Amino acid sequence: MSALSLKLWTVAFFSFCLAEKEHGIVYPRMLESRAATGERMLKINDDLTLTLQKSKVFADDFLFSTTDGNEPIDYYIKAEDAERDIYHDATHMASVRVTDDDGVEVEGILGERLRVKPLPAMARSSDGLRPHMLYEVDAQRKRPATGLWYTEHNKLPPSESK
Question: Strand (E) positions, 24-83?
Fold first, then answer.
């Protein structure tokens, strides 16, 4: 490998590492336990803390249908069981599944373009916090004339540029 090639790889590697600091790996933590109002404070990173409220997304009981091979299978599910770990933050347009049985684990939507998901294969922090990937997706828009959804590429609003 030539010296120029090695330098280019080094620059590319460090550029990737620096870019990862803006989103990259985060270690979410609960700041408060459940309050009487049901709100929970979840700190994703230094720039983003969610005020979570329980989400109600299903009817009291609902039918979940699937198949096993060609055999249809129906399950009746209680909404409280399905919604047990689902929360939202209207201010940040966030909807997440949060469990904290063995450390905080978060997965979901953090606004229009940010997402968070656990990294189970990665080691915990020295504080015992679980690592998560904070990443960005392309925004989707709905065309008023057709009602069809489309994706805008390479357009990041200034408010979400970090």
Answer: 25-26, 29-30, 40-45, 48-54, 61-68, 71-78
Encoded tokens for 37 = 């109002």
What DSSP character marks residue 85? T
pTM (whole model) above 0.90: no
What are the pLDDT digits (tens) for 143-161? 777 777 666 554 444 444 4
Instruction: Kindly state the tokens that stand for 154.
Output: 């390479």
**Over the range 57-66, which residues count as b (16 or more CB within 10 Å of their CB) and which as e?**
ebeeeeeeee
Burial letters 73-82, b for 16+ CB under 10 A, else e: eeeeeeeeee
